[in-house]
Amino acid sequence: MLPKPLWLLAELTYRCPLQCPYCSNPVEFAGRRFRAELSTNEWQRVLREAKALGVLQLGLSGGEPTLRPDLEALVRTARGLGMYQTLVTSAYRLTRDRLAALKDAGLDHVQISIQAADADLSDRIAGATSYEDKLAAYRLAKELGFPLTVNVVLHRRNLHQVGALIRLAESIGAERIELANTQYYGWALHNRSALLPTREQIAVGWDVVQRERARLGNRLEIVWVLPDYYEEFPKPCMGGWGRAYMTVTPAGEVWPCQAAGSITTLEFANVREHSLEWIWNESDAFQRFRGDAWMREPCRSCARKTVDFGGCRCQAFLVAGDAALADPVCSLSPERGRIDQALQEAERPWTYRAAPPSRALAEGLSRTGSPGPRK
Amino acid sequence: MSDVRSGTVPRVAAKARLEWDEVRQRHVLLYPEGLVALNATAAEVLRLCDGERAIAQILETLKQRYKSDQIDSEVAALLNALAAKGLVTYVR
């Protein structure tokens, strides 16, 4: 029997006042393919069809979802359908009136991002002055009685602040903090060499998380999203392709995950032309990697295929060039070397200014005539 | 009851919501980023956890409806499991 979806991520718009360099939105978000956002009526139809298919958890995201003036109307519709709703927002210029109106419409849970533990770094990473808005929104969310998640994407420039971020979440009374190590899709893949942390940074961050979990117990749930480049086996991406999860993009394409649109060898159906039911059950893109019949070696005969489902199709496509290969982060993948190479670049220490390396460089220069120190 | 007294007043946590899952024909407790599937009895217990009834009253109500000698331990197990996940809180 076909699986039924439980989760829908509604990406209401790709417009956003923030410019985070690790955004999971497509790098081509401003191009033709992604223009023409769905109307209020179209989204309401999508929500009804999603509920009829089995969706119980709705994420309202983007871009910045509060830029849609019809957000309250969509929340009201979803609440009427009995869905549990999470707003994923930057909280940029979010007012008390707006958040209260969303509460009134039936919003259940608020997730507010922060880019770092201090204003200077947070605003620099976000590319927008937004830190104070976020702190104000945390307080508003608590005052209005929302369960609150603080979410942070971790990378080379902020991993040293894991402890300070946890204390920040604790001080504002958040229920959860999601410390999500960057996953390399979209803008994050484009900026990978500037974002990849060292193994040492990850180890230090993980130590802090374990210590803080012991200290805080039930008071604050600390979610640590694994840095999959540093793992031996791939993540069970989306719990399997087309098994429980779908994303509807601002212009109506339906993807099995937030990044699937980057797989250019697949064609994705649009809710403007098809029902969500047809797209989930029948469309080629959803059927292609459902189950395990598509798997080749080393996945096909692997005992872990029911655990991680071969990992991430997007990563296989983006890094190894074919969406039907094993996730290249898997230590059993023949393409693992591509990941290791990226990691080695992240580890490359600087060279101290000293005579021996200088002599080596001088020889290299006279041989190649190249002005740079590498190669 | 193991670690909750009969005078304790439980309620479904503010962050959680009980819903009927029509597609899968089951009750569910929804919460941030997750859900717990419930059988009909568990759903009934949670409907009684309104922040006003004490556990003794809840048990009494259930015993009028069901003939089982294990209600006390079943309710305790359910509430303890959900309280551990922060999905049930004790008003007092």
Descriptive overview:
The complex is a heterodimer of chains A (375) and B (92). Chain A has 375 residues and is an alpha/beta fold. Chain A is 38% helix and 12% strand. A 9-stranded mixed β-sheet of chain A has the order 7-6-5-4-3-2-1-8-9. In chain A, 45% of the residues are buried. Chain B is of the alpha+beta class and 92 residues long. Chain B is built from 3 helices and 5 strands; from the N terminus they run ββββαααβ. In chain B, a hairpin with a 2-residue loop joins β3 and β4. The longest helix of chain B has 14 residues. Chain B is globular and about 30 Å long. Chains A and B meet through loops of A and β2 and β3 of B.
Largest sheet: number of strands, sense, barrel closure of chain B: 3 strands, antiparallel
CATH architecture of chain B: Orthogonal Bundle
The string of secondary-structure elements of chain A, in order, is EHEHEHEHHEHEHHHEEEHHHHHH
Low-confidence stretches of chain A: none
Secondary-structure-based class of chain A equals alpha/beta
Mean of pLDDT of chain B: 90
CATH level 1 class label of chain B = Mainly Alpha
Distance between the termini of chain A: 55 Å
Spatial strand sequence of the major β-sheet of chain A: 7-6-5-4-3-2-1-8-9
Helicity level of chain B: 25-40%
Number of strands of chain B: 5
Summed over residues and divided by their number, the pLDDT of chain A gives a mean of 95
Using the alpha-carbon principal axes, give the shape of chain A.
globular
Indicate the low-confidence ranges of chain B by residue numbers.
none
Beta fraction of the residues of chain A?
A: 5-15%
Q: Which secondary-structure class do the elements of chain B indicate? A: alpha+beta
Tell me the major beta sheet of chain A: 9 strands, mixed
DSSP helical segment count of chain A = 15
